[in-house]
Amino acid sequence: MPDPPPRMRETVLQRDDYCCLGCGADVRTTRWYSLQHRRARGTGGWNDLTNLITLCGSATTGCHWVCEQRAADAHARGLWLYSWQDPAKTPVVLPGGAAVYLTAAGGYQAA
Ligand SMILES: [Zn+2]
After folding, report:
1. How many angstroms is it from 99 CA to the middle of ligand 1?
2. What is the pLDDT of residues 63-88, one digit of tens each?
3. 105 C-alpha to ligand 1 centroid (Å)
């Protein structure tokens, strides 16, 4: 599967207010950030606004790395999911503590 198209990437960044959903860092001021597929592409995840989140770092650094390690606390916050979990029905706990669903339209909905 190709990377998310530029317009979708921009929608994800705007929705997340250009902040890492793991730690809240402003990715406009951090050198590295990436879009995470909550449900991995290799396990049936897709390019979809319910499945993509902004994380600082890369596959080897920052919060993206934490998710690549499949850390339990990151999983509990919905930052990465198992293949059988539906991203649209699994909330994300934001850095401030609010739990939200990511909508297909590119917004947050209170969980
Ligand atoms: Zn982070």
Report:
1. 17
2. 999 999 999 999 999 999 999 999 99
3. 24
